[in-house]
Amino acid sequence: MTPPQRKRRRPQPLPPPPPPPAGPADGEQPRRYPERLYTIAGTDGGGRAELDLVTLIVAHSAPPPSASPEEAAVLRLCTAPLSVAELSAYLNLPFSAMTVLITELITTELVQARAPIVRKAVADRSILEAVMHGLQRL
């Protein structure tokens, strides 16, 4: 009796990749190619404002006709206070580009930067004891 013969496997050719879609499907966003950051942010000749991710930005007025699209978007979004991190997320721009845009808006006095409210980490012990004693008397 002879042992069974093994057949050699030959590599199968890979199928061709599917063609790219012709356009956006219904409900999909069209693919947006971002602009270069230096065209959005403009010249960075001056210094930057001291901004943090949690610094709140508030607009003073509506966007002027001379504002760039990004500056106009910041002014429209900041009718209520928004943090720099939120603005960066809404506009799909990195923090560094946002700081340049906001610095330009601050120098033209179109927006105001407010520091976030910092709360004390631990309450005063005497206040906590007074509350505790008041609750025990009830």
From TrEMBL:
It comes from the Bacteria. Pfam families: DUF742. Residues 1-11 have a biased composition (Basic residues). Residues 12-23 have a biased composition (Pro residues). Residues 1-33 are annotated as: Disordered. This is DUF742 domain-containing protein. Transmembrane segments: none annotated. InterPro entries: DUF742.
